[in-house]
Amino acid sequence: MRVTSEYDHSYRTAGKGEVDDLSKLEFLDEQALINELYVRYKNGQIYFKFCEELNLSLIQYRQKNDIKNREIQEGLNIKNRFRSSSTYIGDVLIAVNPFKQLNIYEKEQHKAYSKVRFRSLLTPHVFWVADAAYQRMLFHKATQCIAVSGESGAGKTESTKLMIQHIIYLCKSDFDKELQKKIVDVNTLLEAFGNAQTCMNSNSSRFGKFVQIIFSDEGQILGAKVYDYLLEKSRVVNHGPGERNYHIFYYMFSGLEKEELDYYYLDSLENFRILGTSAGCKAYLTKSEIKYCKMMFQAQKDIMKRVGFLDEDITLIFTILAAVLHLTNISFCQDEETDGVYIDDEYPLEVVSNLLCLDQEILATALISSSNVTKGEKVVSLKNKDQANDGRDALAKALYERLFGWIVHQINELLQPNSALGEKLDLLPSIGILDMSGFENFSLNSFEQLCINAANEHLQFYFNEHIFLQEEEEYFNEGIPFDIVDFQNNEDLIEVFMGPLGLFALLDEESKFPRASDSSLVEKFYSHWKNSDRYVRSRATDLTFGINHYAGRVIYNAKGFLEKNRDNLSQNIIECLKNSNIEVVSELFSVERTESGSISRSATAFIAKPYLPSRPKSNDLRRQRDSFLQKRTKSIKKRIQTLKTNTIQKDKLNQVTVTCHFRNSLAELLDKMKDAEPFFVRDNFKILAEQLSLETTEYSTKIFKQKQNL
Ligand SMILES: Nc1ncnc2c1ncn2[C@@H]1O[C@H](COP(=O)(O)OP(=O)(O)OP(=O)(O)O)[C@@H](O)[C@H]1O
Ligand SMILES: [Mg+2]
């Protein structure tokens, strides 16, 4: 559906806003629908369904200029189909983001949407879905899954939190109030580490999360488990203009006391490259942002303590975050004599070594050189400036990603059901809620958007499969006559991304060629997919290409795709970190990751205690600062037997790629959802909400703004 500025305002006045079930509208066309939504939205009614007796809604509003009639048509087809057959096919709720706090999540609503027998008597509500899932779980004693989908900023994370709150209310049990509170709290904690400001949402989830709440047969909560997917680790070292790094960094600077900042060798956030607003621009926080971040910092610390993190755990977390900040401040200079690089200012190097208890010389060596074993002989080669920058950033990303995985792992340890249940644990009923990064279409779309949008394509297919394909199959098997519904099947797009010759397979293949470039990659894409309606060759530059997604066309820029995909740490950096005197850091780089690259689900247990050896005070370091300059790496470099190559380090070409982890991660997630009974919440009305409510249009431009107003 196209929602444009030429919207006919006269239509608005015609709507009465009396219809919960949009299928009941006397005239059902685009304009009538928008009209009805508008009136209801203005009255604070943000939830809708489409076919009451079927609990089905299937309308979506997409990108401003890419919205097609197709989806409304799907809705109409379904309506016609089920008017005659009146069969239950699934639960779908649609929601419009209100961009303001509504008083519809109070005790009164919790009560009203509890054990609902006739849902048609109640206005649609997100609690309605939570209640249905809980009741069905109790009745069938089976795993339920709620898939929340929609574009970025549409309200998925908020819906997820509201549903968790309601499920906890529904248990109405004093059985383990502490545990229930912890389950609510961990969402806020994960947001601090996994959410960031983007152009579309000031609290955008940059990872996928599947929260599974585990119940006894009687419906009491026994525990919970968080599965994390696809953290956008590139954000740690780089983010687009107008965007920000992960929230936790800003919380730290606002919340840590002066002496704590000193302890982590931190001063002002303006001095840290990766916190800048865009390339070369320094970061800043307004007074109200500082106030908000300070409050959030305290909240995170309180949550961590409540959930069960030790003080030492918390110190360790901030130590690693500080190390990431200092590490990414290391810069390299080209050495004219040897073609290699040296570290410009060794102060951040010294700090990182102190924070992570690493041997400084070994770290410096690993940053400026790489080692490969060729024909049984170890060959050490100096990195050029680009390689050194990439290696440093790969380490910063790995530190952050592994820390994130470790936090999820700790959360799961602390929230797990009583292990005395033994094997029975796997048979317990549960409700899982999936909330992942929404579909994105920025002015510049890169590898990260390609991954996020491919994952959303899968989720859409999962939706189609349950809503259309499985039903058609059942009708067919039961010999019930039915009209084929002309829905947009995106199965071919799954092939474009994930097939044996799909974009990700081609990217992986190209990543293994030392001489490949981003431009040769785009050529490869083109040669395989030129005949597909889904692939668009762009003439603008040779690095851009377009994909006609289910949600509209997105133009991607392949600059940096190969490097982002290889993104592997060289072996000597891994070895260096493994030798850290902080056992947890050493473990982070020693434990075996799963095929999806996950640390949190690693089969190897984390056993180390978060012991932190004492280290020099920041003042002591600063006093010596001048003497660090350039000396050490210059001398290290001289000692290295150099075999200078400008090609990519060989160990990088043979390691598992980001794409490989991404594909396995997605497969793991879909496998988890495969056997569950699904519900769908589609928070797809952000654009509509923005169009209809003038006061929300500036919403996404200021960090934390809406939160401060809540
Ligand atoms: N039900 C709601 N009530 C009040 N505000 C809401 C509601 N839903 C969403 N919002 C507002 O919209 C913002 C964006 O919502 P949210 O972060 O849930 O989007 P999202 O779909 O998870 O986006 P992304 O894919 O980027 O993570 C929230 O920070 C909040 O301010
Ligand atoms: Mg989100």
TrEMBL record:
<dbReference type="GO" id="GO:0030832">
    <property type="term" value="P:regulation of actin filament length"/>
</dbReference>
<dbReference type="InterPro" id="IPR027417">
    <property type="entry name" value="P-loop_NTPase"/>
</dbReference>
<keyword id="KW-0206">Cytoskeleton</keyword>
<keyword id="KW-0547">Nucleotide-binding</keyword>
<dbReference type="Pfam" id="PF00063">
    <property type="entry name" value="Myosin_head"/>
</dbReference>
<keyword id="KW-0378">Hydrolase</keyword>
<dbReference type="InterPro" id="IPR036961">
    <property type="entry name" value="Kinesin_motor_dom_sf"/>
</dbReference>
<dbReference type="InterPro" id="IPR052409">
    <property type="entry name" value="Myosin-III_kinase_activity"/>
</dbReference>
<keyword id="KW-0677">Repeat</keyword>
<dbReference type="GO" id="GO:0042995">
    <property type="term" value="C:cell projection"/>
</dbReference>
<dbReference type="GO" id="GO:0000146">
    <property type="term" value="F:microfilament motor activity"/>
</dbReference>
<feature type="binding site">
    <location>
        <begin position="150"/>
        <end position="157"/>
    </location>
    <ligand>
        <name>ATP</name>
    </ligand>
</feature>
<dbReference type="GO" id="GO:0016459">
    <property type="term" value="C:myosin complex"/>
</dbReference>
<keyword id="KW-0963">Cytoplasm</keyword>
<keyword id="KW-0518">Myosin</keyword>
<comment type="similarity">
    <text>Belongs to the TRAFAC class myosin-kinesin ATPase superfamily. Myosin family.</text>
</comment>
<dbReference type="InterPro" id="IPR001609">
    <property type="entry name" value="Myosin_head_motor_dom-like"/>
</dbReference>
<dbReference type="GO" id="GO:0004674">
    <property type="term" value="F:protein serine/threonine kinase activity"/>
</dbReference>
<feature type="domain" description="Myosin motor">
    <location>
        <begin position="17"/>
        <end position="710"/>
    </location>
</feature>
<dbReference type="GO" id="GO:0003779">
    <property type="term" value="F:actin binding"/>
</dbReference>
<keyword id="KW-0966">Cell projection</keyword>
<keyword id="KW-0067">ATP-binding</keyword>
<protein>
    <submittedName>
        <fullName>Chitin synthase</fullName>
        <ecNumber>3.6.1.15</ecNumber>
    </submittedName>
</protein>
<keyword id="KW-0009">Actin-binding</keyword>
<dbReference type="GO" id="GO:0005524">
    <property type="term" value="F:ATP binding"/>
</dbReference>
<keyword id="KW-0505">Motor protein</keyword>
<dbReference type="GO" id="GO:0017111">
    <property type="term" value="F:ribonucleoside triphosphate phosphatase activity"/>
</dbReference>
